[in-house]
Amino acid sequence: MSIKDLAAKIKNKNITPAQLVEEAYTNIQRSEDQINSFITLRPKSDVLEELAKLKPSNSPLYGIPYVLKDAYATKGIQTTTASNILKGFVPTYSATVYKKLQAAGAILIGKCNQDAWGHGGSTENTDFGVTHNPWDISRVAGGSSGGPAAAIAANFCTFAIGEDTGGSIRNPAAWTNTTGLKVTYGRVSRYGAIAYASSFDTVGPMAKTAEDLAYILSTIAGVDPYDATTSPTPIDDYLAHLGNDLAGKTIGVPKELYGDGLDSEIKAAIMSAIEKYKEMGVKIIEISLPISEIGLAAYYLIAPSETSSNLARYDGIRFGQGRGEFTQETIRRIMIGTYALSAGYYDAYYRKAQKVRTLLVRAYEQALAGCDALIMPVNPTMPPQIGELISDPLSNLLADVYTTSINPVGVPSLALPAGFSKSGLPIGMQLVGKKFSESLLLNLGYQYQQVTDWHTRSPKL
Amino acid sequence: MVNSNPVISLSDVQHTAQLANLPIPEDKLPKLQAQLESILQFVKTVQTVDTDNVPETTQVTGLENVWRKDEVEDSRTFTQDEALANASSTHNGFFMVKAVI
After folding, report:
1. I need a surface site. Which of A134, A194, A388, B9 has the fewest CB within 10 A?
2. Annotated catalytic residue: which of A31, A122, A144, A145?
3. Reduced to 3 states, what is the DSSP secondary structure of residue A341?
4. DSSP reduced 3-state for A208
5. Please, are residues A414 and A445 in contact by the beta-carbon 8 Å criterion?
6. Pairing mode of beta strands A250-254, A373-377
7. Chain B: nearest CA to A210, how far in angstroms?
8. How far is B37 from chain A, CA to nearest CA, in Å?
9. How far away is chain B from the Cα of A323, in angstroms, using its nearest Cα?
């Protein structure tokens, strides 16, 4: 059920938040053994106790159960970022996004699985067991926010907060038939988010529909004095514009992204979505965006460089365990970053990648100059079998080809369901917009979800 | 495949691990070197791009010099107990570390 409907039912006393919590825990008890979406599931008694103390409010999120990716500091609740380094770490402060949701009356039921530190696209690089895809438990749920995406798909919660540095919200959303928003860099505070690559990291909502995302974003967006990179750009009324007519809008189709390497069923599904948009009066134009591979290469220099610096603080002295606990994937990223930043290699790798970053910014500016949004694939393939990606470090990185180039540029991207393969696996697509165009992206997503029903389908568990 | 002219040698891997303060067992180094080599071979494709007269981008906020008042904010300051709450070893209200010399 949508946040809008739940909020109405709570307000009219047709349903109580306690009933929602009970339902969530019933679903968790039934299927979590197969999915493994949680690292920390709060005891139901704690959650109900918190609920009892909560003053009823008119906030649309009041009494709605949700989960956080385990990348957010939660005072008094274990926070691990799926790494043994932080196993047992109980923060003494809370992330801004968590505080805002607490103030809005949303009910946290647990902290979800991910690739450790955000390092991965399959939630296999975790010290807490792989998360399984609710649509086919022999397959990965995507990553790095795989736990939150699986939890939404399996109806363990109504929404989640993920984190996207190179596709970590969009990739698992696409592979689990859920909807996720990578916001404009600086739109949502990163305070209390465990950093992967600070100049790419974004905090964003995940749920079943674009409409739900609009409710959540309205609550979490905005300037935070604790995060100097948050933007003073005014926050749009995301709900007010959902129903705007799409006639006169233009969507660009970057032709290079639909060539070799893209699964034919994913391509066909997005082409059908493009037809839907045409029927709604959207003008479709073909454009050129010849940057995805070079964008990926630049990403895999800059992000590891930033992560090698960010993760230098984990020394096991003030909190957490020692540096011997990093996984192989994280060791590789720290090593690549340290190498790219080290004397003698800095100019040829790190500085060069930062120049290529400028070219990426320009390429997107140019691509978006003639249209309102771009329509792009999220993943090149269907969700792989568990074990397939993690066994090959380079192909693990290459799986991110359509998502990574967005983050160095800072623009927003909405990932949403676009259909299913013949074998019944979910297919996603992404709509990429200009900076701070979240309102338009949610409008485009909402209108598509009015004329399609992919997002209403749930896996059989 | 043996690459006679690798981007990253075994001793580079050792040196980099030291810079990154990562304890990597000797017997794990060759496999790590091969993996890093394949990643570096891919990412070094950035070097084929013409970036003459292209400035670097280090951040995309467009913001500069974001200041706050130079005042202590209790709302984001730990007490001593809070700061020490997750430390593996403390003594008289301090963090305990291994002797440096």
Report:
1. B9
2. A144
3. helix
4. coil
5. yes
6. parallel
7. 25
8. 10
9. 6
How many structural domains are present in chain B?
Answer: 1
| CA dihedral (A310, A313, A319, A322) positive or negative | positive
- β A179-182/A413-420 pair status: antiparallel
Do residue A92 and residue B68 have CB atoms under 8 angstroms apart?
A: no
Q: Do B83 and A331 touch (CB under 8 A)?
A: no
By Cβ distance, the residue of B24, B39, B76 closest to A226 is: B76
Domains, chain A, with CATH or none:
3-456 (3.90.1300.10)
Does residue B57 sit at the A interface (CB-CB below 8 Å)?
yes
Tokens of residue A50, six digits: 């918190």
Tokens of A424: 């019944």
d(CA A410, CA B59): 9
Q: How far apart are CA A182 and CA A406, in angstroms?
A: 9
Q: With beta carbons under 8 A apart, name residues in chain A contacting B78.
A: 92-93
Residue B40, domain extent: 10-48
Domain assignment present for B24: yes
What ipTM does the predicted assembly reach?
A: 0.95
* CB contact at 8 A, A385 and A281: no
Among the listed residues A75, A277, A23, A378, the one whose alpha carbon sits nearest the alpha carbon of residue B76: A75
pTM over 0.95: yes
CB A199 within 8 A of CB A442: no
Per the annotation, the verdict on A168 as an active-site residue is yes
Q: Does B3 score more than 60 pLDDT?
A: no
Beta strands, E only, A360-459: 373-377, 413-420, 426-433
B65 touches chain A (CB under 8 A): no
Residue of A nearest to B78 (CA): A92
Number of residues in chain B: 101
Which are the contacts of A26, defined by CB distance < 8 A and separation ≥ 6? none
Catalytic site residue A69?
Answer: yes
The interface residues of chain B toward chain A in range 77-96, judged by CB-CB distance below 8 A, are 78, 82-83, 85-88, 95
What pLDDT sits at residue B4? 60
Torsion of CA A164, A168, A174, A180, to 10 degrees: -30
Residue A5 half-sphere exposure, CB side, CA atoms within 13 Å? 6
Q: Which of A31, A37, A122, A168 is catalytic?
A: A168
DSSP string, B59-94: -SS--------SS--GGG---HHHHHTT-S-EETTE
Does B60 contact A at CB distance below 8 Å? yes
pLDDT tens for each residue of A104-153:
999 999 999 999 999 999 999 999 999 999 999 999 999 999 999 999 99
